[in-house]
Amino acid sequence: MTTFPTTYAEILNRLDTIDPVSYGRSRNFVDGAVSYLSPYVSRGVFSTKQVSEYMLARGYPASRIQKFIQELCWRDYWQQVWIHKGNQIDEDLQHPQPRAERDGIPVAIVTATTGIEAIDEQIRSFYQTGYLHNHVRMYTAALACNIGRAHWYQPARWMYYHLLDADWASNALSWQWVAGSNSRKTYLANQENISKYCHSNQQESYLNKPYSELEHMPIPLELQETVLPDLNTSLPDSHPLAIDPNLPTLLYNFYNMDPKWRGDVSANRVLILEPSVFERYPISNNSLQFLMDLGNNIPDLQTFVGEFSELHAQLGSSAVYFKEHPLNKYIGHEDPRDWMYPVNRYYPSFFSYWKACQKSVS
Ligand SMILES: Cc1cc2nc3c(=O)[nH]c(=O)nc-3n(C[C@H](O)[C@H](O)[C@H](O)COP(=O)(O)OP(=O)(O)OC[C@H]3O[C@@H](n4cnc5c(N)ncnc54)[C@H](O)[C@@H]3O)c2cc1C
User: Fold this and answer.
1) To bridge 207 with a disulfide, which of 67, 175, 191, 349 should be the other Cys (CB 3.0-4.6 Å)?
2) In the chain, which residues have pLDDT < 50?
């Protein structure tokens, strides 16, 4: 079972175990050479740029690891969309979801009883590990939205809640990509495809059909019942802060747990957990625990549970520093993000963004 260590030394070790060449060939299989890095990139322990530079420094020529670099770039792309579109990513971004007939998530997905054995097995393991393989995320989203005809928003929130790599841009926009509200067509997978990439022996199921039929089939019995997922974050108790007003205050949060950020500076270091953010984007206890454990890599990190305005009132003359992120509404000095490429614009498709990225370095 995949596990996600949280000490910085172990996390760095993980970078050395990645095989970015085999990655290109095998990444679509559930047991392929994927990196399992996303929980660390999502929590901002390191950036996409640091990962790609690390791989190049290991001596891999860029041409042999292009697929890996491109996948990292997907994350930057979705972040750029979030920056430029803001809260619009919470709604159908480019056009109404083609097959949305109802809200909620099929109960069978939540209870891992869809009848698609490989998916059920992966969802059961997801609840333990907080990780789902990319292809299985796509299968699950296709099942919920394109076969089960649910609108993508509630199922996306359910998945985000349990993922250790929860990243609302990658999440909401990937769901929309599958559901067809942020892409030109909807994504479908039949039983043969799922069995092949998940090494399953299952042949018979409601997905055992040619694609032309899948597109128009009625909602299968197994996916008919839906539920609105009940998602709540149990934030820890807040303790009084010990702030030295003569030192700057560095803010860490759900999207910035970088232990090396301004590492040489004497500072108050505060992890801020704003209830308003977690009400909007709830996370599970496992996800919260993962975040808190990553906090052990940051010396003398104090936790503050409350809104920025309440924290600000306690900081006195201490200057506030934070890293750029679309959710941050702080007042203070904003450090820029470490992007892979200097492209800062909205592109309606990944490949137009990727082209602009390539041009920016040629
Ligand atoms: C429905 C759905 C929901 C998703 N939700 C999230 C989410 O909440 N958080 C999240 O981090 N990713 C999300 N993804 C993207 C992708 O599935 C994960 O980033 C990837 O599976 C993470 O596993 P890995 O680190 O082993 O990836 P690898 O395949 O090893 O990829 C290396 C790195 O590239 C980046 N990456 C790879 N694929 C994508 C992608 N499609 N989009 C964005 N970045 C990518 C990640 O940083 C990843 O760590 C979602 C995809 C889908 C289809």
Assistant:
1) 191
2) none
